[in-house]
Structure formats: C-alpha cells, structure tokens
Design goal:
The chain is α/β, with parallel strands linked by helices. The chain has helices spanning 48-51, 76-97, 110-119, 141-145, and strands at 11-16, 20-26, 33-40, 58-60, 67-69, 103-108, 128-132. A hairpin with a 6-residue loop joins strand 2 and strand 3.
Length: 153
C-alpha cells in the first residue's frame, strides 16, 4: 500500500499599514492564524520634520545668480513609507524563492495597500489569492481570522 502525502500550499497572510507589518500562516484552509513575525516602521509614527536631520544640499549654479536646492523636496514620511513597502515586498519575494510562500493574502490599509502593490514584482503578483483594503493591523489573530475568507487556499 502506498502512503500518499498531500501537502497544503504554503499560505501566508500579510497584515500591514504604514507603521507595522504582521506575517501569519495557516496549517489548513480553515485553520487558525499563526503569527510568524512583526516588522515595525517607527518612522511612520514620527512627524515629517522629525525625520529630517538637515536641509537638502545646495549648489551654486554659475549661469544663474542665487542658489537652488540640490534635490526636489520630498516628504520624508512618504519616503519612509515607500521604503517600508519595498522592504516588505523584498521579504515576501525571499519567502517565495525559498519555497515558503505559494499563496498570499494581503490585508492592508487602503493607502498602504496601493504603495505595497507598486513594489511587488511579477513573480509575487500571481501568488496573491485575495486583497482586503482594511487596516486590521492591531487586531488579534482570532478576530482577524473572522475577516478573512472561510477557506484560505
């Protein structure tokens, strides 16, 4: 008699907002969530002016009298959020390349979900099973599970 072993796809759930990201997995399609880890973006809670240690560099343009900023003004808080989204996308891609991610559920605040989408590469996008544009970042795993599809596959 042959013992056939079926393995469930490796399902992960990312619950995120600009300030934190929580990673979960499930053992079965209707199972409980198991928290794998938390990534924090402390800069998301800071005021924009607190993120800037100095003004942009300046240069002298000899063709025009006066000075101008060396770079376009960019909101430091937005830069921080973009960096966090990029780091999360890279982390998810590493999970994929190491065989620990086959299906992905994204649960994120609407603005952060949009930012996160910009950084997901073409190998990750087909793995997305569902997206939920809600900020459930501080919700307990048991309560969060009630907002996800009954069967996570």
């Amino acid at each position: 008699m042959t013992n056939t072993h079926f393995t469930m796809p490796k399902v992960q759930i990312l619950v995120a907002n600009a300030g934190q990201a929580r990673f979960f997995s499930v053992d079965s399609p209707t199972g409980d969530l198991h928290e794998l880890g938390v990534d924090i973006n402390p800069e998301a809670r800071m005021r924009g002016e607190d993120l800037v240690s100095d003004r942009p560099g300046r240069f002298q343009d000899r063709s025009v009298n006066g000075r101008s900023a060396a770079e376009e003004p960019t909101d430091p808080k937005d830069v921080s959020i973009q960096r966090f989204a990029r780091q999360l996308a890279q982390k998810l891609d590493l999970e994929r390349t190491q065989g620990r991610l086959e299906r992905l559920y994204l649960v994120a605040s609407p603005p952060f979900l949009g930012e996160l989408r910009k950084h997901l590469n073409g190998n990750l996008k087909p793995l997305i099973a569902d997206e939920i544009a809600k900020d459930f970042g501080h919700m307990a795993a048991r309560d969060l599970r009630k907002h996800l599809p009954e069967r996570l596959k």
